[in-house]
Amino acid sequence: MPSxxxxxxxxxxxxxxxxxxxxxxxxxxxxxxxxSTDGTLELVRERFPEARVIEQENxxxxxxxxxxxxxxxxxxxLLLNSDAWAKDGALERLVAFAEGHPEAAVVGPRxxxxxxxxxxxxxxxxxxxxxxxxxxxxxKLAPRSRAFNAFYGDGFAHDEPYEAEFLMGAVLLVRRxxxxxxxxFDEDFFMFSEETDWLYRFRQAGWKVLFTPDAxxxxxxGATTKKSWSPMFREQVRGHIRFLDKxxxxxxxxRARRLLLVSLRLRGWLFPGERGRTYADTARWLAGSTVExxxxx
Length: 297
Hints:
This protein has twelve helices and twelve strands. The protein is α/β, with parallel strands linked by helices. The chain starts with a strand and ends with a helix. The mean pLDDT is 94.
């Protein structure tokens, strides 16, 4: 089997990180910690003394992954969220599939929630229309329509190999040769959309991004971000705008700002409690800032 380096970025990653690292034991794990205070580092050092630990200031998921990839030595780089883990034999099957597709820069497995249900990971790149279908609930009106669900991979059933626009970044197997050619994550994306931008760049360079159902991983989802959901939601919105500004230009980013402003004002009115307040606060943030100011935050 080709060599694989596993990169796990942690920030108060208990209780799931132990299961994550155990599932890929023997594959050169690199743990990049961003200031955990919950015992994550102590557990990693006690239970996984073979893992290389890097401690640094919080540079976001992309920045943390970059730090790990820069010191990795594997032919393949497995970027594994701290709340995700491989089922038996999943990593070997994922690598075997990737080795059989030399045109692929990135391969992603099928993801399951801990209860066994499917976690949809195939995604479509953001456009104004696709953002509208998500943030104005349009896809809920026509859940079987491809036109209204392109943001979520056209409703793909995740039951066969598939060439994706991009994949959710919980588990990504990356070909080192491709990463050396295209470069690593853009660290201007602190959280959210960093994998969107990266996989877009791979595709622009002529590489493919593939999904395979032959390998399955479990992903809890939001184990860290749910602890501070309101600022993380703002980062999600900022990520959309940053992606469009970078790849479609400032005018398109401004249109996205206006679209998101309207949709989040609506959501703030419709949803009660903390969720509604988060939407309303994010709308006020969008209303009071230019695109340049939003991206400088």
